[in-house]
Amino acid sequence: MYDLVIEDGTLISGKGRRVADICVEDGKIVYIGSRPAGPARQKISAIGRFVVPGFIDTHVHFRDPGHPAKEDWHSGSRAAVSGGVTTVCDMPNTRPPTLTRGDFAEKRALAEARSLADFGIWVGAAASNVDEARALAEGDAPLACGIKVFMGASTGPLLVDDATLVRFFEQTRALMGVHAEDERVLERYREVWAGRTPPTHHDSRPADAARAAVARLVELTRAYPRPVHVCHVSTSAEFEVLEPVRGALPITTEVSPHHLWLSTENDLGNFGKVNPPIRPEVERRAMWAALKRGLIDTVGSDHAPHTREEKALDYAQAPSGMPGVETIFPLLVGAVKQGRVGLERVVQLCAENPARIFGFTDKGHLDVGFDADILVFAEKELVRFTAAQVLSRVGWSPFVGQKVAPKPERVYAGGRLVAESGSIVDEARRGRLVTPTRS
Ligand code: DOR
Ligand code: ZN
Ligand code: ZN
User: Fold this and answer.
1) In this predicted model, what pLDDT tens digit does every residue of 248-257 receive, in sequence order?
2) Main-chain phi, psi angles of 70, to 5 degrees
């Protein structure tokens, strides 16, 4: 007997769509097709509905165990699954900064105890930990989903200088995820604006910082080939450098929804302060053009949930970052409804490509043998996103007021129904560590 059968849905993959049943047993997809499914503990009809793989957000900062107002694994993962993100990868610049095996074990235990979503964990790069990062991210059974490098200082303590970056290229081979803003360029602009408030945050960290960083990454990847995932591209300058080497070097790219939906014309004050910054409108449009032209591989939220109180500080003190894990699906599926992108492409960006790039071989596809992480939803009229829909503990979103698709009607994680139309219906599910298989 199957645990679950989802009947007659329209299944979407990057290759196209077909109507079929999905049968689930022990958290896995065990059959897809149209022969009569036979008995099941639970059967649902998905006639007239789309069925897609659970989204994988490889870029969240779930942050702060023990802080009463800040996100933690419980609140962050509730927000994630409510919005159809069934796998998250957590960045290393939170508490504790994840640099050592001990830090890794600590974060893993927190997530295992509290996360409704499956989770990967990045190890951070620092001058002190090349060997430990390699041990965590490489070998026969790597634990970390990749090595995260901050080339420019952002929120949190992690930053590597060029000499350390070179050592990581020389001495490690695992997927490297990079916050690509060049610290020396950032430093120059700090001097330019010393003691003054720039007109926009973008003026303090303009496109040349991002361009210089990706240019350096291209040089190093050419010298020491290994997979590099450039996080949150935000400027056409980065594509001027990356497009000529696309396919020739193993460099892939991520875009964040805030660089697709927000520009300096949205007057969000410190709530719009994020690194890399929200850019002028012309750059926002360039990100859509890049997405259409196939220059972007994944969408990652860069969910960095700082509180309203923190954002109320002066510009200089307010932390950079904004929540976003729960709005990827509403925004992107809303864009499908508006004709700006195809649903097949969204499945590639949010499920298939992250699974391939990170080596998550159980995830990202509706196929036999894969984890039963499944979203079911109908095409609906767009709605205005409101603060009342926010499940993240911070209680705000820079996307309030945007026209979006509703959150998915049903979200299954490992075959269990965890969320329905934006509400959590199973608080008891606990996610597991997702680790890469490197070929
Ligand atoms: O704006 C940002 N916030 N950019 C980052 O790189 C880090 C993040 C955070 O952790 O708050
Ligand atoms: Zn970053
Ligand atoms: Zn980030």
Assistant:
1) 999 999 999 9
2) -95, 160
